Amino acid sequence: EAQVTQNPRYLITVTGKKLTVTCSQNMNHEYMSWYRQDPGLGLRQIYYSMNVEVTDKGDVPEGYKVSRKEKRNFPLILESPSPNQTSLYFCASSRYRWADGELFFGEGSRLTVL
Amino acid sequence: DAKTTQPTSMDCAEGRAANLPCNHSTISGNEYVYWYRQIHSQGPQYIIHGLKNNETNEMASLIITEDRKSSTLILPHATLRDTAVYYCIVRVAQNNAGNMLTFGGGTRLMVKP
User: Fold this and answer.
1) Of A24, A90, B14, B111, which is the most exposed, with the fewest CB atoms less than 10 Å away?
2) pLDDT, position B107
């Protein structure tokens, strides 16, 4: 089954404790992206990748890192999480190098930073 | 990418057609109209997209006006599971200046029994 898988789905952590949210897609897609969703602010893009080893900033990249060492994986790294990074995070992928056509989203990862 | 305007919320009776409007009066000739929906904090789900012509798939129909300044997403027989927030997005293909979907507020569709 074609899917985008995120882990963990739920996480409560404390300020400053490094964490990684994994994202994996099984569709051999070129484009992958991370969004965060906050009440009243909607969905905002954090980072995206058009290909292996190619990543670029979205609208809200501060406090996050990403890597794309393999085509299928696009982990989101919070080196020193802060409470303002409490949010619902979504990973997405597309067969093209752009966010065109059908974008497939994961189920979401709800992160709480205390 | 052009800005879109959608009603904040709409109701629809189960089994009836749901017609969701979207205004994109500043759309340019090479911008596509996309529709996504999000069911209660799940990941957004692609529905349909089009450029000029009307489009139909197994989920919905997309009607784009001749001047392309507005469009309507039609769910022909709405069910309770169609209750969601529906997003209308306008986007230039292969846009390196903004390689993302820009989600606005969307329309909260409530399908009622």
Assistant:
1) B14
2) 97
Largest CA distance in chain A: 38
- Residue B100 confidence class, pLDDT cut points 50, 70, 90: confident
Q: State the best of B51, B99, B108 to mutate against chain A, taking most chain A CBs within 10 Å.
A: B99
**CB-CB under 8 Å, B104 with A103:** no
CA atoms within 13 A on the CB side of A59: 14
pLDDT computed for residue B97 by the predictor: 72
- Using alpha carbons, list the distances in angstroms from residue B53 to A51, A52, B5, B60, B66: 31, 35, 20, 14, 9
Residue range B15-32: mean pLDDT, rounded: 94
Residues 6+ apart with CB under 8 A from A30: A50, A51, A71, A94, A95, A96, A97
Contact B102, B71 (CB under 8 A): no
The shortest C-alpha distance from B78 to chain A (Å) reads 22
Calculated CA dihedral for residues B60, B14, A104, B2, nearest 10 degrees = 60
Question: Can you give the length of chain B in residues?
Answer: 113
- pLDDT tens sequence across B35-80: 999 999 899 999 999 999 999 999 999 999 999 999 999 999 999 9
